[in-house]
Write a structure and sequence with these properties.
Blueprint: H1 2-22, E1 32-38, E2 44-50, E3 61-67, E4 78-81, E5 83-86, E6 89-94, E7 102-111, E8 114-117, E9 121-124, E10 130-136, E11 148-152, E12 155-160, E13 165-170, E14 175-181, E15 190-196, E16 201-208, E17 213-220, E18 225-229, E19 236-238, E20 244-249, E21 252-257, E22 259-261, E23 272-277, E24 282-288, E25 298-301, E26 305-310, E27 316-321, E28 327-333, E29 343-348, E30 351-356, E31 361-365, E32 371-374, E33 386-388, E34 391-395, E35 401-406
Antiparallel strand pairs: 1-2, 2-6, 3-4, 3-7, 5-6, 7-8, 7-9, 10-35, 11-12, 12-13, 13-14, 15-16, 16-17, 17-18, 19-22, 20-21, 21-23, 23-24, 25-26, 26-27, 27-28, 29-30, 30-31, 31-32, 33-34, 34-35
């Protein structure tokens, strides 16, 4: 009886040993993370970091499969060999991709002719940054100079030259509507700037050189009417657009620059920032600044500062504190070589954009404090950048089309 028991136990032990020898040894689990870096519309970089105890050295081959097809196989996907970058970190430079497309990719390994494809992941290549032509103005074949641009009520307005025609562009529906006229603007007689007040209205501030008189009017986009309001002073004047600037804000506007005394050949100019209250339609002194000279200034405002592009001093960007009047005279310098009358400026996203008639466009981030060159708009005309709903537009006075930048 005991012999049979021993025999049975021996048989079971041999069976267990045989089964253990037949069972394949499991590969250690491979755990990894992937970071996708888009370098452009046709290039990407996949950074693969092995987070488990093992790395890829135990495999005969390892790489990346990439395709538009989510079901990745060795036959239908592009195979990219991995290059070791540092300890357990590999990267795969990917090229020949189409812009604005979704691609699927996966890590694959090969050992002893056994291929394993891991879970597929995806990324989308960026679409190309470019200017897209939108609808033409109603009289696109007629070229006019002296064009004025402004926004009100999330619409773009183009006042077209000496004939004073005013057109409204609806960016949401990409269509133009003929409106009334600009207020008293005649080429060679008056200098005028128009700025959004943020409440469906806009303020126009002009100068009649013959009488040395400023003219102020408020445009109501709902009624398509202009209303005369009092200028800053009857005894002084500003040459808006030449040595001073009109800056729009929410329910406010500012005039900054050189204030001249009427009918005086010798006069020490005042250096004040005046604020227009859109509710009361009255002007007041916001602050005084330290007397910087400006030449063809353009700018915009935030809650606490005015940013001015000063073409007199090597395209310097000045920042003026609205409370103290303190000026940082070289907050930034525009990386352009355009001459006077050729630069324009607009607030956009978390910074501002500079445009020149040499068709160069630069974006300055107020967060990272650096410049990024944008693609050319392809036109050597004086095109003011205009922003509505955080979308960037330009109107080309030569072909009469509106253009939008796709970032």
């Amino acid at each position: 009886m005991s012999t049979k028991i021993y025999f049975s136990l021996a048989w079971l032990l041999l069976l267990a040993l045989f089964t253990a020898c037949e069972k394949p040894v499991e590969e250690p689990a491979l755990v990894f993370q992937v970071k996708t870096v888009n370098l452009g519309s046709v290039h990407a970089k996949l950074i693969i970091t092995i987070t488990s105890a093992e790395d890829l050295s135990r495999f005969d081959k390892a790489g990346v499969l990439i395709s538009k097809d989510k079901n990745l196989t060795l036959a239908n996907a592009q195979q990219i060999d991995l290059t070791k970058w540092s300890d357990k970190t590999y990267f795969a430079p990917v090229s020949d991709l189409e812009s604005d497309q979704e691609y699927f990719y996966s890590l694959y390994t090969k050992k002893n002719e056994i291929v394993k494809i891991y879970e597929a992941r995806s990324f989308t290549t960026p679409r190309p940054k470019t200017w897209v032509r939108r609808a033409p103005i109603l009289q696109a074949n007629e070229v006019r100079d002296g064009t004025k641009y402004f926004t009100a009520g999330n619409k773009i307005y183009v006042g077209w030259g000496g004939l004073r025609d005013l057109y409204e562009y609806d960016a949401e529906h990409d269509q133009w509507t003929k409106k009334g006229t600009l207020p008293g603007h005649t080429l060679g007689k008056e200098v005028m700037e128009i700025q959004d007040l943020g409440n469906g209205k806009a303020l126009a501030y002009a100068l009649d050189f013959n009488t040395q008189t400023n003219i102020a009017q408020v445009y109501d986009s709902k009624t398509d009417t202009w209303k005369a309001v009092a200028p800053i002073s009857d005894t002084t004047y500003f040459d808006i657009g030449i040595r001073s600037a009109l800056i729009g804000a929410v329910n406010k506007a500012y005039v900054v620059g050189r204030e001249h005394q009427k009918n005086r050949t010798v006069f020490t100019p005042k250096h004040r920032i005046y604020e227009f209250d859109a509710t009361t339609e009255r002007w007041s002194i916001r602050t005084e600044h330290n007397g910087m000279s400006y030449y063809y200034p353009k700018g915009f405002s935030t809650d606490e500062h005015i940013y001015l592009l000063n073409e007199m001093n090597a395209k310097d960007i000045h920042r003026i504190n609205l409370n103290s009047g303190m000026i940082i005279s070289k907050f930034a310098t525009a990386p352009v070589t355009a001459t006077n009358f050729q630069l324009s400026m607009a607030k956009w996203k978390n910074g501002f954009i500079i445009n020149s008639t040499t068709s160069h466009n630069y974006y300055y981030s107020l967060q990272t404090l650096d410049w990024t060159e944008l693609p050319s708009s392809g036109s050597n005309t004086y095109e003011n950048p205009v922003v509505v709903h955080d979308r960037l537009f330009k109107f080309n006075i030569r072909d009469g089309f509106m253009y939008e930048f796709l970032p």
